[in-house]
Amino acid sequence: MNRQQTQKAATIIISGVAALVIIPIFLILAYVFIKGIGVVNWTFLSQPPRNGMTEGGIMPALLGTIFLTVGTAVTAIPLAIGAAIYLAEYAGDTRATRLIRLAIVNLAGIPSIVYGLFGLGAFVLFLNFGTSILAGSLTLGIMTLPVVISTAEEAILAVPQEFRVVSLSLGATRWQTIRHQVLPHALPGIMTGVILGLSRAAGETAPILFTVAAFYLPELPDSIFDQAMALPYHLYVIATQVPGMPIEIQYGTALVLLMLVLLLTLFATVIRSTMRRRREW
Predict the structure, then answer these.
(1) Architecture of the 57-278 domain
(2) What is the pTM of this model?
């Protein structure tokens, strides 16, 4: 077999493997879309559940998920980017730094239910926040930190060293170099990691089950110390705990959750593409 035949065979095999992964995903998305699109309308998105959650909409759960996602962003993004800057620009390659990076990688692989139990013990009970938006946001923020830190650090390290050398040689301080040269060029990768981390947080059930999620709330929360409904837990409830629940509402709720996550991912892709086109290297 010559080189061209080998290349062709490798292309066919890789394309087949990719199709085995992608096609089932599209089939699942299409099935959920077909089963759920019939109930997704403005009433479904803007009204609370009624009649034992067998009628009405998902507005409290949808807004609760948005509140938790925003709270996660406020909690995780500043800490994650600050930690990534420290590891990439200040810490150096020491044994302690390598141990910290190893710990971050290990934390990224911990099951989400462990974070939920940690949030229950640390925020709900020890700090006495109760089951609240604050406790849920802090828990989701901690769960999101490892992924965002790793992604942001890789994006910062990918910026060519020449940018730093030239900036420092012109009299800029290290922070001025990071602020005006490194971070703008690393921003596409950082934003991608942030949005993907928030997408994961928006779809998690186990952490919010212990820290914030309510079975049913007719009213919207008044403060960050109140409980809230959330789409992932609401979907679990209507699929397993509510007798006589119409199957269309279950699939409609799943479709809205998928659309929310896909919109976040699409937003990250657009930002990354736009910023990469503006990049000068």
Answers:
(1) Orthogonal Bundle (1.10)
(2) 0.88
